[in-house]
Amino acid sequence: MKFSSHFCEGHLPIAFVFSAPGEEEKRKGKPVAGESGANLEAALVHLHSAQPTLFSSLHRYDYRITNSFAEPIAVALGHGKSEADNREIQKPQNVQRVLSELEGCNLVILCGNKAKVLSQAIRESGKTIIEVPHIGNKGLNSKFKIPNQIRSASSFDRRQYRIKLWAEAILQAIARENAT
Q1: pLDDT tens for residues 58-94?
Q2: What pTM does this model have?
Q3: Alpha helices (runs of H) in the chain, residue ranges in sequence order
Q4: Which end of the chain has less neighbouring CB within 10 Å, N or C?
Q5: What are φ and ψ of residue 70, in 5° steps?
């Protein structure tokens, strides 16, 4: 299986597209190597439980994973930012790279605003796309509010609740796609 800080070939025809690899991904040489990856694996438990035929594995690296920008970007790496600019993402050679890396995938899940910059190009390539927030803790916290009865739960339990909501958002979007 092919790995780099921004790409995992996987063997299932579902792809997850994130923004850009960071310091952790550069160090480990695999995409979504930190908390986002742990959150993705927790979400796969929910996705597999609800749609075991579609999400047939609980392991993130069984799926295609790429990023809207290939080069690691992080403040910890000396950059003043942690994501590429939209102009960088939309450069023809970058769009072509992403489309090439998505070859063989029918369903593409765009995780976060930077991944969504590629939605038109990916949709025009004939793939089904689902758009959800980034599964990093910041993305989960900003998008999925928790009800009052869960506010006193541990931070781990609140995170698990938000991860379940993220997985449900994917399942609802798939159901809407299938209804059309």
Answers
A1: 999 999 999 999 987 776 777 777 788 899 999 999 9
A2: 0.94
A3: 23-28, 35-50, 86-89, 92-101, 113-116, 119-124, 137-143, 155-179
A4: C
A5: -85, -30
